[in-house]
Amino acid sequence: MTLDPYPTARREDTADILHGTSVPDPYRWLEDPDSPETKGWLLAQAELFGRERGEQRFKSRIAELLRSGSVGVPAWRGERQFFSRRTPDQEHAVYYVMEPDGTERALVDPMAIDPSGLTTLDAVQPDKEGRLLAYQISVGGDEESVLYVIDVTTGARVEGPIDRCRYSPVAWLPGGEAFYYVRRLPATEVPENETQFHRRVYLHRVGTSTEDDVMIFGEGLKMTNYYGVSVSRDGHWLQVSAHEGTAPRNDLWVADLTASPIERPELTVVQEGVDAQVGLVFGRDGRLYVHTDRDAPRGRVCVTDPVTPGFETWRDLVPEDPEAVLSDFAILDDLERPVMLVGWTRHAISEITVHDLETGERVGEVPTPGLGSIGGISERPEGGHEAWFGYTDNTTPPTIQRYDARTGETTLWASSPGAVEVPPVRTSQVVYRSKDGTDIRMLVISPADDASGPRPTVLYGYGGFGLSMTPGYSASILAWVEAGGVYAIANLRGGGEEGEQWHRAGMLGNKQNVFDDFHAAAEHLIATGVTTPAQLGISGGSNGGLLVGAALTQRPELYAAVVCSAPLLDMVRYEKFGLGATWNVEYGTVEDPEQFGWLHAYSPYHHVRESVPYPATLFTVFQSDTRVHPLHAWKMCAALQHASTGDRPVLLRNETEVGHGARSVSRSVDLSADTLTFLARHTGL
């Protein structure tokens, strides 16, 4: 294969001396997206990618499989039901209300707001009576959510736009006259490089100017804090939580809103300065239910009195399971014997158990459609005997299931609206050993015919932030396997599949465990005859982009092809860009000598070596990404193009007007087709 010459990228002698170590950075000039030199280089890379791209082999099949559409778990407010749904021909899901008589109305349709498809719906929250709906939208992938409120009956706007509401919860007070929410300070009040931070909790009264909003929390705390806020259904209790960045711990306070004014709630500490996570549900029975991993890395549910919510009063209701991670719960109390439904993931597979609400005794389980993933369990806020939950697996588009606690039966409530013919596949969960002897699980999805002999294979992983890789419907995975390939998803340390200890075994100074787990997954697939190094591609995005970046620099001989999407790759300077400063609780900070040592030891950009035959590599980045700046991939791409020998290409796919998160279906299809086509070409599929 003859490659076109790579675009010229000037190498500088730039270097920093950090804790006595010289850290070269030859492509720092690419950190400036507005410089003519960077723009010219990006244009040349786009032209190169266009020439090398070839025909998008999988595009029509991915589009066809995505015609399944989707459906979301309902939120009930009285007899009104709120839910999202995407039909086969829609670019984005639409948010609906269903009236008691069965009449449906669209409340928020991103394509009606913006026919270009660049506007995404980021969050929704109906008020407690179902009369008003707060929703947040952003444009072009920047995730800079703007908040609006509409009247559910008429669709008329009653509030907004309120800007600076990225990642803001909305906690309605009863009656819909006011809500608590989170908003960043204005850019004029903070340093230029800190405009993404400095959040505060405010009280807003509907119909008044935001200038009159009352700040109730956050003053004087860390600039990287994220805040949660919610109000109990009866309006009696307020809870406010604070996370330092993405740290796996939080501080938590409650206030009795009947005993102090809503604009000056008297907050009582539930937990402060404790290395654990805790969340509260104020029960209709007057009890306070506590979901925590404190002294229980896989999670437990405790009960206490909301008047005395401190740790010393907690009593186990559903204790920690030695194997399964407790994910969520719902209370069904319109029964002779009220129950709690508890959601778990056992080695990444979901299940729901039924417990006596008073004693916590396990009294049954909820039938589920298969070995897959369950979305949030939803009940009516006023109580009842029914619950709803989402379900998906590798061959099942999202469905909503209804559980009736009076009969013990689960029935299909709603399906994704599109009829698609899903190819037959075979899914198995295997266990392999990592470098240090730890057992790791991996889901392997292969053609149903299971013909022997190694096949082109894609290995995918994430391994960070306590996020779990669980089974789910994926058009791109199905298209790949249907074409004869194998797709493997490894449940690496750093994720949440086995609880908080599993997460911590892959964060901070333990990050190399994640990379070792991934290399061991590849070696297992090769040793068991699933694939060969010449047929093995790897793929990951965001923190998973860091994973595959480390994989290709640490073990280039093990992989034939790499797709590295929206990645973190310069781990020495990552804190300076995007939301990087909120992730030093996960990775560490270069300000600390020991933590600098961890970061520098694996930072992919700093481990590109001259004259190495690196795997074929495709970087996919998004120009409007405000979480992970594309500069990581730009610099790494230039470094690899300079250093790599052989005939395997290093390419950059730089997409504009999209960001790190949600995008239109057609944009998703294009991206998936390009990445699968690249992987197929370089693994021999």
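[next item in queue]
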Amino acid sequence: MKKHDLLKDGNNIIRVLEIQFDKILIIDCIKKTMPVWVESSALDSFSGCTDEVLNEVTNFAVNAIDALDADQRKAMYDRYTLIAPSLPFIADERMRSKVIGSTAIEHNISKQTIRSYLCLYLAYMNITALASRKRLDDDAELTQDEKNIRWALNKFFYTTKKQSLMTAYTMMLKEKYCDSMDVLLNAYPSFYQFRYFYRKTKKMQNFYISRDGLKSYQRNNRPLIGDGIQSFAPAIGVGMLDSTVCDIYLINDAGNLVGRPILTACIDAYSGLCCGYVLSWAGGVYSLRGLILNIIADKAAWCKQFGIPMNAEDWSCDKLPATLVTDMGSEYKSENFEQIAELGVKVINLPSYRPELKGMVEKFFDVIQATYKKHLKGKGVIEPDYQERGAHDYRKDACMTMTDFEKIIIHCIIYYNSQRIVENFPYTEAMIAANVKPYASCIWNWGKSQMGANLIEVGTKELILTLLPRTTGKFSRFGLKVNKMRYHCDGYTEQYLKGGEATVAYNPEDVTSVWLLENGIYAKFTIIESRFEGKDLTAVQSLQIAQRDIAKGASQDNLQAQINLARHIEAIAGSVRSSADVSVKNIQDNRKREQRKHHRNYMKGAKP
């Protein structure tokens, strides 16, 4: 037997702390009471034991120091500091008690707490036994009442019905603490216990999602901790696309109310420049096609069409951004729009309800609308109360046409690009040295000359053909058949004879031509059926459907006519007497006689 040995006798486990002649100082490792002196003969029935057996019996795992976190290590050393002065006096009960008392007064802690730490350390002889224990959040450590409270919170409180805590508590008592006659039992948790458990286990993320839904959480409550735009737009060439319905009602040239126009825009994520826009009555892929064409257009010439003079440096974008960032709108996910990738453009679809990832275009809409609305009050502009009961009908104020409003939008964009101060832009040393002014156009013009600028030059015709919808055409002897119409182009004789399928781009607004896409090259085919020239696809399909309906309507009459024809032929054939012996001689003479017999002078009865 040696000092610090563990001994076991049945369910008892002790640790030897001191040995003096026939007396031994021991501590009960199970009860963890203060050390006592016993006669050595009292330990004759004990045998050796290991730390692993002690840990298993007490269900107390002593971890390595490296496995503890910072809070656990701090608690461990703080507690050891409390018991360290008394460790040299373990064998002297009087001095030990005196040191524990003085330590308790010095640290303003109870003597019993110090004794419990001391016994814990002596039982395991390991400083890590003093580390604080983290309670595991599992069912084994929950009482039945706590399980019932958790059940009630999940069933009645964390739901989209948004019940109050008191309602959830009442429903818990009804379901879990009433007898078969719905009479409340004598023992049940109080509301304060219910509320305490709720506050202790409450997680804000679970609270928002369960009561308001994931969409609301993503839009209104999710932590906004990303670096945002600068994380994926370190230089110009990342365009952000989006659409919004303008807060104004417009009329047509005849003075009739039309409604609210749709503004679609592309904003450079790095500089904030508006690369292009389109103002239209229809959204979707149609507006995107107009937007992409406006991005590569000469902006000075575009503004000149509206009688608006502009310096080229204020809006010098005539190339496509190499990366287009969009949301999960159906028009952006369409195969038609993704064809733009053939030009080398990368399309990134952001997840739903992540407006901060395309904050530049969201900010653009806010600034543009706020800019014109304050000057157009009483002219069809919508105020925040337009959906409230009894609010003014702003449709009656409409007095501007689309042309008038587009001029205003252009002026607002020119201001946004060239005169609005871009606040909090992350200026670099090179930008400061170049004295770049804090305007989007100046940042854009400077960025075009820097390494990393990623813009793609593309022609208008190539862009239009790329954005056209596509379908599968079939070659045959009758030409290239597309949308149930036939087309022709010189030099494709072999394809007509061999047959096969091909990818074809077509213009839904004019079916006169289609373009065969082959190895990235567009070959123009012209329609064979001239009656369809100049018509749009909808009109052609209407004609084709009408023709099929007419033919379908006459099919029954056609069947009846075939039946009648068969009946007449059979009647005539049945009345003829068949001859079993027909002579085959002198056929030419017979033919001449019959010709003379049936000859008719057609001019004899003609009028002069």
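[queue empty]
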